[in-house]
Amino acid sequence: MPPVVPAGSLIVTDWHRNRESKEYFKRIFHNKKRRQFGLLEAPVMPPHLKVDNICYKIFISGKSGVGKTALAARLSGQEIPSVHYETTGIETTVVFWPVKLKQNGRVLFFRLLIWDCGDNALRRFDHMLPSCKEQVDAVLFLFSYTDRTSLEDVTSQIARVTDPSDRIVKLVVGTKFDLIMHADVSDDDVARFEEVSGLPVFSVGGDVTGGLGEVAPLLDSLTEHLWHQDCITAHSVPLSETAHTN
């Protein structure tokens, strides 16, 4: 399993709060809301802003009802569905996230292609899971704070979706963190899971449509782990020679 990277080891965390980042982040906004990008679209950068675009495939895994589709909407700044429905096939969402490297101040624009597939569809159709796993760079394993069994299910999800020898990024996300009155998972439960699994847990919840405050820690960590994994794989080969660079 790839090592857990301490936050801020490679990138400037919370860079979206820095004044110098505004010129980059405004490229993913339109009328003060996050822009929705199609599969063939990308932020238009002015000539004086030099950035490298890097593409990654992210798969969201979790039992039915934990909020996989809602997380994809949250990360992309879309409106979060008010009513749950089972995803019948594979849905893809594009998320762009700029980061600044600590070592040399270089700005990278991460293009995250998020794959979301309903758990029932994965179990019903044998070809779904292999399609989601093919050339995947990271997996987000989800559980809901309102459903203890969903946290217990994460371990089996990890065994089902990945192999111990996989060199892919694995992060765990707890959804519905804002529903404190209905919480079925405690902080102690999460701490024990982190200790046993060795994986970091991120918590999300509430309505952040158009905002960055809550999603920034998860996106920062995800992109930092992806970049770290690429550096290990490439043995510090220059960015222009790695497979993910456009």
From TrEMBL:
Q: Name one GO molecular function term.
A: GTP binding
Matching entries from Pfam families are given as: Ras (PF00071)
Q: Which GO terms describe its biological process?
A: cell projection organization; exocytosis; protein transport
Which keywords does the record carry? Cell projection, Cilium, Cilium biogenesis/degradation, Cytoplasm, Cytoskeleton, Exocytosis, GTP-binding, Nucleotide-binding, Protein transport, Transport
Name where it mostly resides.
cytoplasm
Superkingdom of the source? Answer: Eukaryota
SMART domains associated with the record: RAB (SM00175)
Cellular location of this protein?
Cytoplasm, Cytoskeleton, Cilium basal body
List, alphabetically, the InterPro entries matched.
P-loop_NTPase, RSG1, Small_GTPase
Family as reported in the entry's similarity comment: Belongs to the small GTPase superfamily. Rab family.
Question: This protein is called what?
Answer: Ciliogenesis and planar polarity effector 2
Q: Which organism is it from?
A: Denticeps clupeoides
Q: What is the lineage of its organism?
A: Eukaryota, Metazoa, Chordata, Craniata, Vertebrata
